[in-house]
Amino acid sequence: MRPILSALALVSVAYAQVNPSEQRIFNAFQDIRSNPAVFMRLQGTVTIGNKVDNITADLFWKTSTVNARNITQVELLEYRNNVLESRSVADSDTLWSYNLINKEYSATAYGTYKTVNVVNPTDYQRDLLAYLNVSSKGFGTSLTKLLRQIFDGDVPNYQSWIPVAPAVEVDAPDDNQISYTYGNPIQKKIIFDVDDADKLNWMTFYDKRKVGRQDRETIWTLTVLASGLLPSNVNFTPYTSAQIRGWRPVVAPKPVRF
After folding, report:
1. Which whole number is the average pLDDT over 101-112?
2. Which of 177, 182, 192, 197 is the most exposed place for a label (fewest CB within 10 A)?
3. In angstroms, rounded to a whole number, what is the distance separating the alpha carbons of residues 10 and 2?
4. What is the pTM of this model?
């Protein structure tokens, strides 16, 4: 069931260069970016041979205006088997990345708030998204990839997650599903479920590949759990020096921009 597209939506599509079957995804991304705060969760499993790991990643995103400055804050938490493995937190001018397994951390200033007295520095938010994308080493990269496609630029920059696969849209009574499938038997598949109000219900992802002589199978579902308001315990505060005493400082990797 497809609503009539507004003139603004058509213009946005032209900018984002999406094809008609992907219009619903683009509209859903527009809806997400209209909120000042977003909470997304990715949950699934990674199976290698007989070993199954449960994975979870939580991402919190907030924009606000403080003393005429446009502020962006982010927190990304990555868990494996309910153990926190990595944390990235952007406190408004510095992205702190922590590897809790190796006891390592890095700090990277994004934008120019720390060094230049300007109201809204150039590339402030884009720098943050680029550095956040490379700070995640595991399954959290799917969340940072989604975040960049939604917020990096004047309009969403949706790009297919499986470029070699065509988009297939299936209409349902209350929603639409756009899927991409690669391989026979299936090696990779992703589905976007968007309701008739152009809101993203969920995404699912499947990937199967060889790791040495064993198969590695990754399955996850990503949902938007909150828009506009975040849980009260989210405060975008980095660890104190006492909390990371004895940890090894490392140089943050250089980001790759779109």
Report:
1. 88
2. 197
3. 14
4. 0.86
